[in-house]
Amino acid sequence: MAGNTEPLSPRAKLAVTAGKAAAAVSRAAGRGSGSVIGGKVALKLDPDLLAALARHLDVVLVSATNGKTTTTRLIAEALRASGPVVSNALGANMPAGITSALAGGSDAKYGVIEVDEKYLATVARDVTPKAIALLNLSRDQLDRAAETRMLAEKWREGLSGSKALIIANADDPLIVWAASSSANVVWVAAGQEWKDDAWSCPSCGGVMQRPGDDWFCAECGFRRPTPSWALSGDYVLDPHGSAWPIKLQLPGRANKANATSSAAVAAAFGVPPQVALERMFAVQAVAGRYDVVTFAERELRLLLAKNPAGWLETFSLIDGPPTPVIMSVNARGADGTDTSWLWDVDYTRLAGHPIFVLGDRKLDLAVRLEVAGLDFEVCETLDDAVRMAPPGRIEVIANYTAFQDLRRRVGN
What we know:
This protein is 35% helix and 17% strand. It is of the alpha/beta class.
């Protein structure tokens, strides 16, 4: 439990040391941060290490299909008003990466941990969180992750009986279904732009009715709960009806929603909304997302979009035509090897933009854009795309590994 300062066992100390050594070797070899291999080595030596490292922390877990890395960062900034925080800020969100992050937080008071959707129940069992934030569920990496209804069911079963406070998005029926097995839930009206995974009732399979912002199933009575926190324009409404201004350097409605959920989490740890939201302003970019960089004497804004819901949100925040748009799509292991999701994205929203396509699966994307009736150019490299793009800042949108490739190319 949080507050337990019992020292690590000799076995746990050895595992931490070995993990840090493995991570250092990985970094020296230029293979990345080393957090994943370091965590794997440590857990191999002590399978109970994650639980041991979390004992002295008040832990909040953050899980979702989209926005979990950003929300984790916002919560971490808010909670630093009340004490030191350890967090997996770079997004290594499976047990190995989480273990590596917590191994560096011996002096922390809070642990703010992003968790891959597939591992939420497992990690929650190990770290005994004080709070769990559930933001959204939509189709993503269908070749490795369960269909969304199955994933919601897995969460529902895993969270049943949990003593954690669940902070959950009341506007996503799948999230509500997953969270409803818990006894202690704070509902947040954070919105739901992408609704194509939530037209059937997760409780009975009936057709969901969605008048305005409300939703309900006429067949079984499953319906949207009454939220106690809400996003309203540029304000967060708290349970007392007070409105607190959201001032972020991060763009878009989705990040205002992330800030609203983050304020609700921070309040559960005793940080007032005004303080929490003021601290969130310090976040300019998250693991390269939203960074504006100079490359080949051009200004590029780097945007991550991994699935249909993410692309929809991204299209809503890019500058309008004739701003050039570069899109890069890969289908490596971390992305999911199935690119059929491209057909679920409404690319007609890019009409009027000069479009340039690259990445491992640039031809898959090209076919999709051709069917959408858009004009575009297929490019071999980022350098080619930038050279061909007309004047002005360029919006660069990429899925996960393509985004990492682009960051390396621009030196970000």
